[in-house]
Amino acid sequence: MLEVKNLVKKFGDVEALKNLSFSAQDGQITGLLGPNGAGKTTALRVLYGLLKADDGVGVINGIDSQKDPIGARKEIGIFPDKFGLYERLTAREQIAYFADLHGLVGDAKMQAIEKVIKRLDIGDIIDRRCAGFSQGQRMKVVLAQSLVHEPKNLILDEPTRGLDVMSTRILRDILIELKEQGTCILFSSHVMQEVAALCDKVIVIADGKIADEGTPQELCERTGKESLEEAFVTLIGSDEGIAA
Amino acid sequence: MIKALFKKEFIDTIRDKRSVVAALFGALFTPLLFAVMMTFNIEKARSVDDVYIEINNADMAPQIVELLDRESIFHAELPSTGKKFELNGETHTHSKISLTFSDDFESQLSSGLPANILINADYSDQERSSQIRRVKRVLENYEGAVLNMRLVARGISPLVIDVVDLEEQDTSTPGSKSAIILGMLGVFILFSVFVSSTNVAIDCSAGERERNSLELLLMQPVSTFDVVASKTINTGLFGLFAGTLSIALTAVVIPFIPLHKIGMAFNFDLEVAVKMWFIILPLAFFAAAFQLVTTFHAKSFKEAQTYIQYSIMLPLIVPMALEFSKYKHAALDYLPIVAQQQAISKLIRGELTDFTPVIGGMIVTMLFSYGLVLFTSKSLKSEKVVLGL
């Protein structure tokens, strides 16, 4: 369960978040939809406790991330917008490092690593250094490191950017599987088809505020449009920043 | 947690060729540079340069010419233009000094009357003055010898003209003489500690941010203190590794420096090496903590490289600034860098008997390093530093 309440965040004179509130429920995939610069990444950074909000709170499984960022972060797995792999480490070392960071030790750590390797089918690249990996292989390693501690909440920031069809499909299948296991999944995107196909709930953000929220179907009905893309354009009032 | 973080930092650095090469370079470069400089200096101090002067009427005083010859002062015609002239296919520089024996030099000398010698030179020229002095010393020695013979020939003891018996005792021992030059060695070793860890510091801070892994790391359930502490330990270890290698190499190189030729001795034994190692131990971590402050606050890898150049200068600037300011206070001896620099120079002079400032300096240096780590970990909570804004 992820929640942000009345977030306000300013960068100098620019108000990036203007009283933003939304929540993501367990066993659901919640999509955070918005044009570039709408405040998606900023909202997520505040939720992780990486940025300090000027006002409002981010709550992860009941823990206020502004007050106890370390406690809150233990409850989440993060799939960042920029992968940021350690190029000189092997995939196994990379995943083991994140297992360490989440406090896994000994046999439990080994088993968790083996489990995630099997789940993502990365046995063939696991002992290679990340430097030569393709975008699809990188995605898998990043996903593996965000899942190794089996978090109750998974946050993905524009996960399908730069991925080919096969990689996108793998990612999608895993997200659906996790959702069925009761994981709370929040992902930000500006790819309409993906959001329409995956999300149980869509939150549309524009200019640091909530423009609307509901199922993709509800959004279409409310705006009187056929497709989510048309509904989105109507909601945010321009067609800027949409990937078809 | 620090252990897990450190393990990753260490693997990451040891696989980074640039960091390892930079550390090795820092370690090897300084002792070798020192050895080359020392050897060159010693050879220069020992060798007497040939001086070329013009001697006119040389056949009037063949004995003097011979004495000059023994002191490497030779005759050469004044070049018509400039100072350069050719001799046996080689180019030499003329001193522009000319020595002229008067036409009646020989007859005046044999009749016991003052015999005239004219020295013609530009006395205002600083470079010339030592050459003029060399020429004059030969003439004075000759005069003294002739004088003694004349007194003896008249049955007078030469002792009557020795009014003052001036005795000179040089109390500088070979050890203390070499300490002046070897004092540089201390600075060189401190320098190697600072130089060698720079690339590691840049790579794990500004470099990590540029590769987008810093932000992801800080989103994990770890405290920024643990992150900075592990990076400081790792960076410091590379500095310490280089410092250790530098000390070991110095111990190997010193016997090859011809110190004995200038009457110097320096016993760089295991005990000195071990003591030196303990002195640089806290400094390596101080250097790391200091460098991480600069590199984390730089916006990019390139900017970090620019800033870190100045941190390398610290071991040179801090002792120099104190030297020039002439400001003396007992507390200064405990400051990082100053404490180590003084301890090493005392150690080299063989005067390190009081260990209080060494241990005190060690503790103060560690406290300073801890303060710097705290400062960096606090600034990693600011978005400006995390995102490089």
From TrEMBL, chain A:
SUPFAM superfamilies: P-loop containing nucleoside triphosphate hydrolases. Residues 2-232 form the ABC transporter domain. The keyword Transport applies. GO terms for molecular function: ATP binding; ATP hydrolysis activity. Transmembrane segments: none annotated. SMART domains: AAA. Keywords: ATP-binding, Nodulation, Nucleotide-binding, Transport. Signal peptide: none annotated. InterPro entries: AAA+_ATPase, ABC_transporter-like_ATP-bd, ABC_transporter-like_CS, ABC_transporter_ATP-binding, P-loop_NTPase. Belongs to the ABC transporter superfamily. This is ATP-binding cassette domain-containing protein. It comes from Psychrosphaera haliotis. The lineage of its organism: Bacteria, Pseudomonadati, Pseudomonadota, Gammaproteobacteria, Alteromonadales.
UniProtKB/TrEMBL annotation, chain B:
The chain crosses the membrane at residues 20-42, 179-202, 237-257, 277-295, 307-325, 355-375. GO terms for cellular component: plasma membrane. GO terms for molecular function: ABC-type transporter activity. Keywords: Membrane, Transmembrane, Transmembrane helix. PANTHER family: ABC TRANSPORTER PERMEASE (PTHR43471), ABC TRANSPORTER PERMEASE PROTEIN NATB (PTHR43471:SF3). This is ABC transporter permease subunit. It comes from Psychrosphaera haliotis. The lineage of its organism: Bacteria, Pseudomonadati, Pseudomonadota, Gammaproteobacteria, Alteromonadales.
